[in-house]
Write a structure and sequence with these properties.
The protein has 123 residues and is of the alpha/beta class. The protein has a single domain, classed as Rossmann fold (3-Layer(aba) Sandwich), CATH 3.40.50. The protein has four helices and six strands; from the N terminus they run E-H-E-H-E-H-E-H-E-E. A six-stranded mixed sheet has the order 2-1-3-4-5-6, with helices on both faces. Strand 1, helix 1 and strand 2 form a beta-alpha-beta unit. It is globular.
Length: 123
């Protein structure tokens, strides 16, 4: 069982959620709970449950960096027009190589690289 826990936003592909579950991660997929959840509520939920939020929604950058909302960690997937399995490959690479950098970081995944922004820098 993996000790990192995730909350997956409504816009996260089921293929990513399925991959994480198959790998033994604790994942709460928001469509299974409440598709109407606002971004601030989702951020609050992930913080309360100490789970890293996975999203395709760049609005979370504003919540974190402009409004100074704290977070356990966020993974923002910024991959345009890629299939779910391509995003799964990127997620696999992230987890294999950078597991220790997920907590307390704002992680941006693109086709070419992973960017890590420490969240303690935003206080």
């Amino acid at each position: 069982m993996n000790n990192i826990k995730f909350v997956a936003d409504v816009n996260v592909e089921k293929a990513i959620v399925d991959y994480l579950l198959e790998e033994g991660y604790d994942v709460k997929w928001i469509p299974d709970y409440n598709c109407e959840m606002l971004d601030e509520e989702l951020l609050h939920l992930s913080n309360k449950e100490k789970k890293i939020l996975i999203t395709n929604d760049k609005d979370f950058g504003e919540l974190i960096f402009l409004q100074k909302k704290l977070s356990t960690g966020i993974i923002l997937i910024r991959v345009k027009e890629q299939k779910g399995e391509d995003k799964v490959k990127l997620m696999r690479k992230l987890l294999q190589n950078y597991r220790d950098k997920l907590l307390n970081n704002f992680v941006i995944i693109t086709e070419k690289k992973f960017r890590f922004i420490p969240l303690e820098d935003i206080k």
